[in-house]
Amino acid sequence: MDKKRILIVDDDPAILRLLSTNLKARGYEVTTATDGEEALEAVQKDFIDLMILDLMMPKIDGIEVCRRIREWSDIPIIILSARGDENDKVKCLELGADDYLTKPFGIAELMARINTAFRHRGDAAVAPAQSSFACDGLEINFAKRRVTVNGKEISLTPTEYSLLQQLAVNSDKVLTHTMLLQTVWGNEYSSEKEYLRVFVGRLRKKLEPDPKKPKYIQTIPGVGYHLAMA
Amino acid sequence: MKDNESILVVDDDPDFLAVIKRILENKGYEVETAASASEAISLIRERFYNAAILDISLPDADGTELLSRFLERHPDIIAIMLTGHSSVQNAVQSLNRGAFAYLEKPLDPETLLSILGRGLEKQRLVLENRKLIEELEQHNHINNTLLSVSQAVSQSLDLQEIIDTSLDKVAQYTGIETSFVYIHENERLVLMGCHGLSPEASKTMEKEVDRDTGIIGRIFRQSRPVIVEEWKDSTEPTLAFLKNGDYRCFAGVPLAILGESIGVMGVATNTTDCFSHNNIELLTGIAREIAIAVRNAQLYEDASSAKSLRELDSMRTEFLANVSHELRTPLAVIKGSANSLLQPDVIFDEPTRQYFLQSIDKDADTLTRLVDDLLMMSRLEAEALEVKKTPYKLTEVVDSIKDRLDNLTARHNLILNIPDEIPMVNIDDVRISQVLTNLVENAVKFSEENTTISIEAKANGKEVIVRVVDEGTGIPSELHQKIFDRFFQGNGRKSGRRKGTGLGLAICRGIVEAHGGKIWVESEPGKGTKFSFSLPVN
Fold first, then answer.
1. Sheet holding A29-33, edge to edge
2. Which residue of A has its CA nearest to B325?
3. Strand pairing category for A5-9 and A50-53
């Protein structure tokens, strides 16, 4: 398998060098960018598998970069920011980032999050035993990782897809917040309920005819979520 | 019938006069008689009569002439002309001149009383109407006055301006020159303004009075007007100042809104009996308008201080967010580098290990500098920066930091151009050295290698101007003010160079201003930057 290429975007050269040294030592290819413009160029030019993105940058800031990339690409985006504000975190996740890590951070933690993001891409995931799922217009082809609603193909980011797949293969059960966080993201995420809320919101926006009155993903208050069978 | 309606009867026949007098007096009228026109005229000069009964042919004058004289003096008088059969023509003429009626002699008493009754009834209506109109006009006057006062005082939200305008308007609309206002503040009534007082009187006036005692306090507490006629006999201490003027009469009205007093307005005059009911009503109304304006101004002041507190609070929050961000970046490098070395899954080669250690070392310095800068900033903001000014030659200051400047500009050409004849400046050399170092550091950060950075100085009258000039990226004019704000970060940094704390120029400005100087920038994108600051000459 080819080496994965990670794009690091940060305007601080010391952070860039710290990250690239660590990533290269673990077998990744690395591209760096020092502002939003360079980042957007790099994503268009190179084959980038994952992006680590700082928020406060000259020219185009990280939030804008995230928003623009999500218009046409579903590459995993991990935000690495010195801003620890909960609002920033939710805003980035809602705009399509996959994960959010606050500076200062531990190397092991960052590596774990990179692995989680790649797992969502399906590289390491075990495909479910059943080959497809269908319910009231929503169809999922697990082998092709293809999702359609009433025949129209829906583009999902890897994390969104992982979450939907988890809900679909367990559509006979209610999945608790903790179960979903642990299986879709990983054990270390079991208390990150915000992630779940934001990603369910993102899925509903893409799948539901009326996201405010969801017919597919049902909220079971205080417990978790359930993908409704017709 | 109204009591004591008065009637003047004029006839040259004494018997007739006596009879008529008796008849009328029996009906309750007050009756006066005159036997000639001249006597009648002198009577009518003395007082008003409700009605006059005039014989048309008098020995010394024509009755119609007399009628004219009467009406001239009292246009409302009810005149009844008495005529003989032969002079009906004259009687008709007198009706045209304004008589109410004429009666032919011999007189029928019943007819006379009936006509007189109707005439007086008409007169009562006329007089009543006139009184109503006068009252209406008085009300209009009060309303217009209040409107004018209200408009004048609502032009401003400045408390002092409102009070000063109010007292001017009181003088303008009521003619009362002497007036003053106390406003309730922290349990006391505080003098906010006075108008028309003699200098001696205003000097002896109480600047603050108790709200629980004295006449001013009573008006405030009871929220009711008080009038003191001939106050000279009073021992009221809060009005003692009026003794220093020729004042005789005092009135005070509350400044109140919805029954709640917020102050007191007092007026004084040198005449007595001038505070009629209407005058007090007008003053009370004016006081109400002033009270509304004063309250608005107070509310506005409260609101704007609340707003500035909110602004301060949001600035503080922003400051903390910025500090947190600036601290986290070098911390991330320190933590990440140390953490890299501790990871069991990768063993780095020696140069990489060295690199991580150097990063830790360097960013620990960055953190130290950030903490120093923050401390300096907070001292500057608390105006607690100690500036120990001593006369210095600028060349000495630059010499003392020459090594550091050389280090900073190792990859640039540093040129020093400080003429010897520059006069001594009164400065704290350590602080000014910091300004120079910060400016040179900035120049390095935003210039290509091998470009020139120069430090220049020239004398300009009472000040010395110091300049740090570079050939770097330049600064667009819209940022020329902003760059001196704390945490402002420019974008033109040369690649690979670290961000600073965003405090350098803010600190420079603080230090220069603490020396009584100014700092400014001249620059255009692509054309280099020239930072200048002035220092007062010793």
1. A29-33, A5-9, A50-53, A77-81, A99-102
2. A82
3. parallel
| DSSP strand pairing (A217-220 vs A224-227) | antiparallel
Q: Is B344 in CB contact (< 8 Å) with chain A?
A: no
- Distance between CA A108 and CA B310 in Å, rounded? 42
The candidate with the shortest Cα–Cα distance to B501, out of B380, B359, B368, B370, is B370
Is B375 an interface residue toward A (CB < 8 Å)? no
The verdict on B164 touching A (C-beta cutoff 8 Å) is: no
The two counts, helices (H) then strands (E), for chain B are 14, 18
Exposure string for A142-164, b = 16+ CB within 10 A, e = fewer: beebebebeeeebebbbbbbbbb
The separation between the first and the last C-alpha atoms of chain B, rounded to the nearest angstrom, is 99
Contact A142, A167 (CB under 8 A): no
Whole-angstrom CA distances from B320 to A74, A105, B111 are 35, 20, 103
CB A14 to CB B333 under 8 A? Answer: yes
Distance from CA of A109 to the nearest CA of B (A): 10
| Nearest C-alpha in A relative to B344 | A108
Of B358, B365, B450, the residue nearest B410 (C-alpha): B450
Q: What pTM, to 2 d.p., does this model score?
A: 0.54
Exposure string of B14-31, with b = 16+ CB inside 10 Å and e = fewer, is eebbeebbebbeeeebeb
Strands (E), chain A: 5-9, 29-33, 50-53, 77-81, 99-102, 132-135, 138-141, 146-149, 152-154, 175-176, 217-220, 224-227
Neighbours of B477 (CB within 10 A): 12
Query: Cα separation of B409 and B414, whole Å?
Result: 6
Q: Phi then psi for B507, rounded to 5 degrees? A: -65, -45
As a dihedral over the C-alpha atoms of residue B427, residue B428, residue B429, residue B430, rounded to 10 degrees, the angle is -160
B496 has a chain A CB within 8 A of its CB:
yes
Interface test with B, best of A8, A17, A18 (most B CBs within 10 A): A18
Distances from the Cα of B361 to the Cα of A74, A127, B189, B342, B489, angstroms:
39, 48, 65, 16, 24
Residue B133 to residues B126, B139, B275, B311, B476, Cα–Cα distance (Å): 10, 10, 22, 57, 73
**How far, in Å, are A41, A121, A207, B229, B445 from residue A67 at the CA level?**
15, 20, 19, 82, 31
In this complex, is the C-beta atom of A32 within 8 Å of any C-beta atom belonging to chain B?
no
Cβ atoms of A39 and A15 within 8 Å: the answer is no
A181: which 2 tokens? 């966080």
**pLDDT tens across the length of chain A (230 residues):** 578 999 999 988 889 999 999 999 999 999 999 889 999 999 888 889 999 999 888 778 888 999 888 888 888 999 998 877 778 888 888 888 999 999 999 999 999 999 988 887 765 455 566 778 888 889 998 878 889 999 899 988 888 988 998 898 888 888 899 989 988 888 888 888 888 999 999 999 999 989 888 989 999 888 889 888 65
CB contacts, 8 Å: A105 with chain B: 332, 335-336
Helix (H) or strand (E) holding A68: helix A62-70
